[in-house]
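retry 2 of 3: previous attempt timed out while embedding calcium ion. Reduced batch size to 1 and resubmitted. Inputs unchanged:
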Amino acid sequence: YFRFDYVDIRVGFKGDFAIPVRRYCGSSTPAPITITGQQYVYIQFFTDISVSRSGFRLQYTISGSSECDQLNLGGEPGSTGLIKSPNYPNEYPKNIECKYRISSSSSSNMISLSFLAFNLEPNIQCRFDYLQVFVGRNTTSGSVGKYCGTTTPSSITRRTRYISMKFKTDGSVTRSGFNVRYSISGSRYAMAGTITSPSYSCKLSQQR
Ligand SMILES: [Ca+2]
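retry 2 succeeded.
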């Protein structure tokens, strides 16, 4: 079955590389489906050379103020990926706020960001459109930089469990946005720690 006519719902990367999450055929109307945390959803309709029916009609809605968020990036040492502003390399939308979180498997790993492309509306204080980078799980504290304009930011490398980013745009002037590569390096095992014998104590004051 599914070899004749069907509809695929796909998420993630563009086009044929997107991951299929549902495949439909036949004549019973599928239940509503909710997809969360994805920037793209693709609907792909396949038909073969024989037997046609009336087809399909679907309605979609996009909800939430944060449909551009990507909070499950990262992984083990060796993991790498690209974070692009929405629509990149075309102009990003107005009035959006996107959050990104890169997680490494251990706080002894290193997370690196390198900026492959950068073009945001310029402002001396980055008051209009900006990308802000935080060392930490959230975009509330630990800011290490707020970037805008056309100067490509320097690479950022930190020994941390999390790096988060916030991309915010205002209601006018858009540019092509950014393309950032993240990578995680380190050992799969802890490279530092403290080991003590049972009942460990050492009083420096007893030294002469
Ligand atoms: Ca703007």
